[in-house]
């Protein structure tokens, strides 16, 4: 079977949807070799996915499609897929092009989250309208919808009235770099480079309101973590001002480190030397940083009430992300109880086997076969 993919994110995005796209394509190439996989992208000029076979990367062919690549992805690509004799198309990032069914091409779309519907205040009105059109349309036209979590499936059924039988929950895993122990020399270099001279609580994620880092700072201040630092790693946004205000209010300037532009290659050593990984986001589609922590054999403190408990399973403790005192209490438990941390680490090792790349590749391949059949 010839399977085409909307692979723009795989070749253009360093994180998020890019990581998901690369993970899926790498898993299928490695474990499900009976099919032929074609990646469609407007450009490939960032060297983000050198492992994908160059002969299987397809770009816009017509002059107008090259100039208007967004329009190409929206509709023009369908005729190109037909000429390439693609049997099935998988939109890896919440959308599929118009016109697939008219050309006899079956389709799958992955929906990652409906955060813009659940937290509308965090998005511009025009962006919400665009996302709503793309996501709804894709769910209606696709033969099957892949949700990255049970939470996303529930949201699709509740908010868009998608037939539950049309939605398959298929997880993803984190990058393989988090599964390899860093050597002691690399760890020492990372500690020295970022001034990590004390045990620390780590949080990795874009510094934005939804990720709730200012409340993590407040919870850290209210804990008994006097011998620990808090390390926040992530891309800065205007929300950083609020985080810094919390740091200043609690006089934590010497105990909270905020790190930006950290190379991906440095993250495994940062994770593996943390005492606790804290991720109390208000809402997520899944929560890949939690898997990164579990693979790094670090216990997790996260938010309860939605999909982060799916990601962390028995490898973490959970708290209401809007209740600072509750977060602080759970953080105290983790920082003061070595045996609890050890238990969570062992449970986390078992839990992450659910996100095995070979298992996920097999689930996708069976889904493709069922649709094509």
Percent strand equals 5-15%
CATH level 1 class label of the largest domain: Alpha Beta
The global form is: globular
As for the number of domains, it is 2
Task: Describe the protein in words.
It contains 16 helices and 13 strands. The mean pLDDT is 95. α7 links the parallel β6 and β7. The strands form two sheets. A seven-stranded parallel sheet has the order 3-2-1-4-5-6-7, sandwiched between helices. A six-stranded parallel sheet has the order 10-9-8-11-12-13, sandwiched between helices. It folds into two domains: 2-173 and 356-372, Rossmann fold (3-Layer(aba) Sandwich); 176-354, Rossmann fold (3-Layer(aba) Sandwich), CATH 3.40.50.2000. α2 packs across α16 (357-372) and α9 runs parallel beside α10. The chain has 373 residues and is an alpha/beta fold.
């Amino acid at each position: 079977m010839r399977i085409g993919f909307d692979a723009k994110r795989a070749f253009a995005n360093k994180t998020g949807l890019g990581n998901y796209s690369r993970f899926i394509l790498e898993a299928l190439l490695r474990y499900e070799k009976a099919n032929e996989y074609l990646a469609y992208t407007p450009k490939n000029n960032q060297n983000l996915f050198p492992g994908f076979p160059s002969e299987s990367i397809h770009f816009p062919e017509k002059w107008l499609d090259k100039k208007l690549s967004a329009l190409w992805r929206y509709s023009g690509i369908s005729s190109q897929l037909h000429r390439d004799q693609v049997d099935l198309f998988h939109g890896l990032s919440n959308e599929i092009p118009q016109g697939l069914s008219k050309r006899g091409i079956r389709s799958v779309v992955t929906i990652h989250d409906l955060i813009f519907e659940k937290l509308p205040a965090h998005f511009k009105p025009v962006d919400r309208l665009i996302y709503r059109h793309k996501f709804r349309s894709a769910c209606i036209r696709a033969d099957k919808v892949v949700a990255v979590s049970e939470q996303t499936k529930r949201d699709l059924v509740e908010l868009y009235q998608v037939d539950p039988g049309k939605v398959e929950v298929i997880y993803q895993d984190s990058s393989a770099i988090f599964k390899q122990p860093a050597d002691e020399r690399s760890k020492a270099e990372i500690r020295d480079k970022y001034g990590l001279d004390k045990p620390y609580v780590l949080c990795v994620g874009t510094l934005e309101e939804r990720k709730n880092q200012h409340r993590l700072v407040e919870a850290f201040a209210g804990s008994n973590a006097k011998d620990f630092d808090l390390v926040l790693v992530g891309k800065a946004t205007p929300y950083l001002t609020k985080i810094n205000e919390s740091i200043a209010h609690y006089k934590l300037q010497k105990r909270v480190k905020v790190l930006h532009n950290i190379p991906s290659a440095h993250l495994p050593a940062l994770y593996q030397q943390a005492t606790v990984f804290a991720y109390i986001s208000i809402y997520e589609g899944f929560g890949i940083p939690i898997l990164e922590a579990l693979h790094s054999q670090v216990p997790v403190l996260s938010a309860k009430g939605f999909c982060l408990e799916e990601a962390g399973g028995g490898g973490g403790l959970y708290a209401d992300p809007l209740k600072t005192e509750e977060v602080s209490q759970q953080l105290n438990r983790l920082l003061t109880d070595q045996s609890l941390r050890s238990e969570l680490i062992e449970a986390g090792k078992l839990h992450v086997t659910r996100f095995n790349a070979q298992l996920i590749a097999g689930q996708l391949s069976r889904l493709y076969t069922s649709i094509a059949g």
